[in-house]
């Protein structure tokens, strides 16, 4: 209850109403004090009228008049003459004198607070103006204790009244907040939970109905978000189905092309000049198709397995890659140099690191094959305090602009004509799985350089 929006609003309402009542209480208690003293002056003036009617009053009657007025003596100034109208013994000296004639608001509030928080009793003198023009000044002496007790009683009644007002106000505000804010917000939360349970159910999409402008805008924004998310989920499902179909087609097509590739050896052995001239182009086309099918199947997997990290000799992996790629080289035109230091070891999954290096070296070799000049692919390595770095560089011709803009985007970042870009996308994903990054550091007509950066520090997960 108290942790809810309406409960918090209820508590805050009570607190703020009480604060407002405190601000009202100070001038209110000052006004009460002034009225109390003015009342004593009026009662003292009425008592003094008896003396005006009869110059000689019995001592007992005079004491009764003073007791009824609540004062010790009464001084009245009439016709510029100051007269002691009624008197009785004063138990102590006069402590303070208060003049109610033309008193300013702040001094009145200051004196009221001092009296309210000052325990004990003292004799005070109060000066004011007589009512009905019965003189120019009236002055009385009295005890302060009755004044303070009356002020405390008044303050208690004000406090009780303030509590009642604040509780009633908070209750009605509580009902208003529940009707105008809490219920609409609860409705929005219900729609969100229902949509989260079944995003495909159109009934989970909210229908804006709030009367409050801000809540209405929130509901409309939520509806738009739900519609967009529903559309995205449907598109994702369709793409997943399409991906599964493409993977099946690629698998079967790869098998067919692999069988066709076996027959190219016999075609190349043909004595027909036309066949011998066309056979290399046919072999290259079939090889590219097989490579595309294999890349599509690799990318179509739901996810790569988590790398099993061990300390790996980089030189051994790059030697395997170099040996594999040299088999596909044209004689004397392209060189693959393995310049990785013998003692360099990194923390990596050997199989996944082999695939990354193989993809980068193969891309570099295929890029050089289109040039009508010799080229070189260099595999190097070094380390810093934070990273192990493996470099794969070539001597040209550089990446086309489209490939640089979509370097690691599947089917868009191909670095050669007919390429799919899946090799770089898969390689970048594998390196990220190691906590590292695959970076293009240079690409110009003179050559291209990629860096595999693997962190030395182990990542700690809590």
Automatic annotation (TrEMBL):
* EC number annotated for this UniProt entry: 2.7.13.3
Q: Please give one Pfam family short name.
A: HisKA
Reactions catalysed according to its record: ATP + protein L-histidine = ADP + protein N-phospho-L-histidine
Give coiled-coil spans as residue ranges: 215-242
Which UniProt keywords are present, listed alphabetically?
ATP-binding, Coiled coil, Kinase, Membrane, Nucleotide-binding, Phosphoprotein, Transferase, Transmembrane, Transmembrane helix, Two-component regulatory system
Which GO terms label this protein's molecular function in UniProt?
kinase activity
Q: Where are the transmembrane segments?
A: 6-30, 158-177
Enzyme class at the top of the EC tree = transferase
| Protein name stated in the entry | histidine kinase
- Organism listed in the record: Ruegeria marisflavi
